[in-house]
Each structure stands twice: as C-alpha cells, then as structure tokens.
Design brief:
The protein has helices spanning 10-17, 31-38, 45-54, 66-88, 99-119, 127-134, 148-156, 159-169, 192-202, 206-217, 228-235, 247-250; strands at 4-6, 26-29, 61-64, 172-174, 222-224, 243-245. The chain is of the alpha/beta class and 261 residues long. The chain starts with a strand and ends in an 11-residue tail after the last helix. The relative contact order is 0.19. The model has no long low-confidence stretch (mean pLDDT 91).
Length: 261
Amino acid sequence: MGRVIAFSEFYDYYDEVAQTTGFFNGALIDTNILISLSYEIKNDHEDTADFFDSIAACKTRYFATVNTKAEFIEFHRRLILTENLLDAVDQHSQWRISTRARAAIHSNWAVVRARQATQGSDPIFGDLQLKTIKKTFSAHKHSGNTGWLTLCSDFIGGKISDVERLLAARGVEYLSQHDSLCQSLFMRKVDWPDAAAMIEHTGLSVSDAMILNAFQCSRCSFLFSADFDIGYATLSDSAMKDVIMPDTIAREYRHFHFKPS
C-alpha cells in the first residue's frame, strides 16, 4: 500500500527515494497546504511555512493542478468578500447598506463564529452564505443604498489576479495534461475511470479523487496534503504513491487497521 510520510520524517524519506530509478524531484501541493501557506491566521500556518522553509535545500519543483488552483482561488474569493462585507457594516463604513442586508451579514457572521468556536473552522463565509447575503442587495444603487455590483467592483476588482500571483511567488507551477509544455511530466493519460474507481473504493470526494489521480499519472514523486481523506485513500490502495502530511494528520491513521490482520 501507499504510505503516509509525516513532515518530520521527510528528510530521511527524501534521501531514500532520491536514490531510486526514475526519481523526479517534483511535488503536487494540495489546496489545504497552499491555503495554510498563504493564510496567516490558519492554525497550522506557522508549522507548514517552517516545514517548507526547512526543505528548500531539496530544490523540489512544486505544482498545482487545475483543481487545486481553482479551490485556492475560491477560498481567497470568499475570504476577500468576508473581510470586505464585515468592513461594510462597520459604523464608520463609507458604504450605505440596507437594513435587510446589514441584518443578513450580521446573522450569517454569527453562524460562522459559532461554527469556528465549536468546530475550529475558518472564520469565512461559505458560498451558500454569500449567496444568501447577495440576495438582500439590489444589483445597482437603489433607495440610496449601494448595489452589489458596485461592492464587487471595489471589493474584488483585480484581486483574483493578485491571488494567482501568490502561487507564482511560492514557485508553484501549473500542471495540466492539456498543456503541451507539461507533457513530459506525465507517465500516462489522466483518465476519469481511474478517478471514479478511487471514489468507489473509499467514498473519496470527486475533487480529491481528481487530485490523487493526477498525482498517480504524473512523474511527481511527492504529494503534500493535509486532507485526511487523501491519506486514507493512499493507505487503502497498494498501487498508490506515498503522500507527505503534517505530523498531526499522519498520526491519525494509527488505529484504522489498513494492513490485513
């Protein structure tokens, strides 16, 4: 079966696999790791950043698939809107917000904070909450209140490109089988039936299955992830390549009895 390698074990593991035939010093980075590196109030930001700083000498090339890139941008879209909507209902805000919209922002924020307190989730509006808030605004200025389209123009105008530049600043390259420049980075075609089989095997999400499948088909030697399901799928299948995970996640698999008794 594939293995889950803890961050603290990576250097010894790297020395081992770097000697193997066909070794390619490249790694896919899962969305949760990219977010931890870019979102400083994330609980594991410091540990993740320290780990990647510590392995800089390995000179590993880092890659993101279309799925990880999309999920990374989506997270920051919600983050940007959350921060700006909260600023918009501040008593000193320049924006004139309707009573209905103001109430929606406050009530949904209360739900976010309650979930953060009980589950440790990120203090960010979910997509459904943002849609609920959006429906309380007129599209354009109405009755003296600012319209949603104006807010979006000011809140996120030009900032999606800034988010993409965060990946470039970390040296993260784009990996796609449809990009002619990436063809040499794949061992075989990334095919949907393989991803579907992963889903059927462990109940993996579609997004996670597509990331794992891209990793399996690529020449990359490593996948850095903090997703429990990614590690679970790896340990459950003897054909999987190894995954590198934070120590706190790697320790969670000790009692699941993956090896046949």
